[in-house]
Every structure is written in C-alpha cells, then in structure tokens.
C-alpha cells in the first residue's frame, strides 16, 4: 500500500544520506531523479512480490476510485471498456508505451555508435509506438524529431556528462523493465493482447 511505498522511499533516503559515495543534493539532475523514482517503484514491486499489484495512490484520476492497477483493469473488463477511448486501462497501456519509448531511447542513446538524439529517438519511436499510431500521428512525430537538440545540447540542458548520463540512463533502463513487465502481466493474465 501507500505506506509501504513511502517507507521504501524513506529507507532509501536514509541510506543515501549515510552513504558517502552517493551523489549529494547539489549534483542531483533530472535524469538521476527519474532513475531514482523508477528504482523505488521497482524495489516496491520486488518487495511485495506483486505480479498484479502496483499502488495507484499517486496517480491523479484513477486513484480517486481504484487502489491497484489490477482493480483498474478488472473494472474495465467488467464494463467492456478496456480499449475504449478514455478508459483507464487504455491510458495505462499508453503510459506503458511511453515508459518503453524512453527505455528504448536511452538504450539507443547509449549505443557504441553515439547516435544523434534525433536518430536515437526516431528508432525508439518506430519500434515502440509507431506500429500503434495513425499515419497523422506518425507524421507529426517525425516532424517533431527534427526539432530535437543535439546530443551535446541535451547533455548540457540536463546538466549531465556522457559518463553521468550513461549511469543514470542505465539505472532507468534496469528499473523500468520491472514496471513494464508488471503492466504487461496485468494484460496477459487477463487474456488481453499487447498489440494495440
């Protein structure tokens, strides 16, 4: 439940304060905050050994009516609204695709070829989201890729070096795998295909 999640976060913060090898607050970057959030969520999932349960207390809309992702999916199954526009289950699927998009983007960005951000993002989008988007959305996404900053500009904007970005992106990749897997298992365990 929410208290378990808070306790995991509190324990991690205390460990971080006591560990001289951890980065201090003045070196906190957006990537390190993202990586830490997903590590906390991944730890919670592993701690509770929850194949079908992630707490939703912090998600704005669904948290008003549901305690777990399982209950969200079960509600939409019962009401035959799993794939209906605006359903929480459909929105969860979109969030899952976004998490996968970021994971793929980071993996591409970290490739030995030192891809440009545009190439890394385009390849990630084509693999994770493009198969499910309409022609109009794919065209808009393609146009948007042209406005992405250079690799160097991105690192500067994120207050990262190649080395620090590598570390934080790898943390996110590792932690996001657990979150993506738990969401996928919610669908698979209920006979809902993942190709939508």
From TrEMBL:
It comes from the Eukaryota. Residues 42-159 form the Glycolipid transfer protein domain. Signal peptide: none annotated. Residues 15-26 have a biased composition (Basic and acidic residues). Residues 1-26 are annotated as: Disordered. Pfam families: GLTP. One of its GO terms (molecular function) is ceramide 1-phosphate transfer activity. GO terms for cellular component: cytosol; membrane. Keywords: Lipid transport, Transport. Belongs to the GLTP family. This is Glycolipid transfer protein domain-containing protein. It comes from Ambrosia artemisiifolia (Common ragweed). The lineage of its organism: Eukaryota, Viridiplantae, Streptophyta, Embryophyta, Tracheophyta.
